[in-house]
Amino acid sequence: MVQNLKNTPVSDDWEDVEEWYENNSERDYSYTGDNIYFIKNEVQDYDFEKEPKTDLNKLVVPHVKQIPDIISYDYLKLKFNLLRAKDAKLIINRKAFMRSATPKIPAKENETYNSLVVNAEGPMTLTMELTPEEAEYNDLSMEYTYIKNKYPNAKPFYSRAKKRMGLLHMYIYNGELIIMITGKIVSDNGDFGLISWNTIHKALEIVKSTGLIDFENEAFINIAEVLSVHVTNDIDVGSVTQYIKSFSCYLPMRTDNYNVLKYKSGYIILQTGKPNKNKPHYEFCIYNKGAEINHKKNRLYKYSIGEEGTKLAERTLRLELRLFNFLAIRKFVAPEKKEGTVTLRELLNCTLQPIRTMLKLLEITDKGLEEARGKYITMFEDETFPTQAEFERMQGLIYMLQQHNYNLDKVRSYIEVETHRKTHSTYFQNKRATLQQYVTCYKPRTVALLQELLSGMSY
């Protein structure tokens, strides 16, 4: 006896059931659980019996659109060696900065010029104005001592730090000027704001408009060094959820060296192990830009990009590679440099493809996806599908990976504890092949979406 749910046919003959479904195909049966062919709101798995061959053999024609036309960045942390202040004609408004033992922490509301300087009792030096001893010190052979005397550690007074959206902080530490900005600083109606050669001068002019510092832009770009950067690519994909789900299907296979965690409305891929100053430190984020701007702290930003920008954000998938140290910056932006720092000009002139390089580390490449898609088409034509037992093993491994945050080492430990047997590394290599077969055979739309995304990305 075959019985589905209320109002569905009861019959001993499957043909009666199939005929009933054909006559009621307009209804939504996603609530029935196993009837995956009727689900309309999610990325559907293919039905091998019904999927027409012509659809599978079509070349992937991208309908995705990369929004930035050149390599762009959403966050920059820059340092400028103040020994070279004259080279960039850099001037600091010393009265606007307060001396501080903790310049990295922005001034608090009670740390204003009036409360600390005007109302101070006694001859206290609180601003960056030099004392007679500091002004007279001219021993250039002691560079570190010299620069510390001329530019003591300081940060802007709360009352003098004119707020600019996208300017996070500015301070002086150990003779270096540190500036932290985000792409929001150049946002406009219909434009999320990203920093690139197209917008860098606008960003620097906004920084100077605070009245805290002044400099010559081109010289500053030549001298300033990059401490940290977020390489960012915004892709207009229409349905962001579909593409995020395609990553969620594919990433479990690619996590030997990475942990995959939920992040906002997407995923963050972190390196396994503890951060080490002797190795590149970076992370990779995939998320819905629209969900980000709807946060209450981004109300001013949402107003800046306007209704047009808000609508675009709902269709935008953001890929963000965050580089936290010199090793990571050199690895993705300037691999020809074996040591030293990368200047702002070198970063802006980058002709490499950092985000595609990161995807390659996850083995998401044009070649790999084409091969996977080709395997699926071959399986469809030859009818060499996995058995039910193989399918169940695939699902079981997927479940274990999900339960252990997609960490293969944790899964291996779990299996060894429960079975009291050592697991050889080749075991997981075989399981990876099984996972590849699972995605290829049962989620070919995942492969097609990722292939489509790559085809629309220039970096």
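the 2nd protein, sequnce then structure:
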Amino acid sequence: MSKTLYFRFTAILAVGLLAAFPAYAGGGGWFIKPLGLMLGGAMLLTILLT
């Protein structure tokens, strides 16, 4: 069970980084960063609480 949790966390982290990189490169980081942090925090809470 902890192995799947670790896999899901790693996958979400990788997808988040891949999604955030073009946004930072394009200069939209000031808008994407807080949004990404909120989404990431919500995802982490959801994963940890289930």
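Helices lie at 2-25, 29-49. The mean pLDDT is 71.
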